[in-house]
Amino acid sequence: MPRISVYSRPGCHLCDQLVDMLLPLVRDLAVVDVCDVDSRSDWRERFGDRVPVVEVDGQFVCQYTLDAAALKQALTADASAMKAS
Q1: Fewest C-beta in 10 Å: which of 38, 48, 62, 65?
Q2: For residue 11, what are the CA distances in angstroms to 4, 14, 16, 52?
Q3: Strands across the sheet with 53-56, in order?
Q4: Which residues lie below 8 Å from residue 58, measured CB to CB, with a gap of 6+?
């Protein structure tokens, strides 16, 4: 099952909105991890104020707002790669 990482920050309204939109779209299709960028120095350095950021299995998908089409494409590509393995 694909793993979606949402790099976010507590109190970020854009982060909250993105997660609220994301969860119903991927229910039963992927595992979602919401990662607080302030909990690790490497994430804080990597993302700074650039949150939310969505990655599927480590590959960038979108930032600031949810790009449902890009997310669908990333999940489809991930599923195809897993079948080929």
Answers
A1: 48
A2: 20, 9, 8, 12
A3: 31-36, 3-8, 53-56, 59-63
A4: 5
ω into 52 cis (within 30 of 0): yes
User: What CATH number has the domain bearing residue 80?
Assistant: 3.40.30.10
pLDDT at 77: 83
| pLDDT tens column, 18-33 | 999 999 999 999 999 9
The residue range of the domain holding 55 is 3-84
Domain count, the chain: 1
Q: What integer pLDDT is reported at residue 49 of this predicted model?
A: 93
Query: How many residues in the chain?
Result: 85
User: Rounded to the nearest 5°, which phi and psi values hold at 26?
Assistant: -115, 5
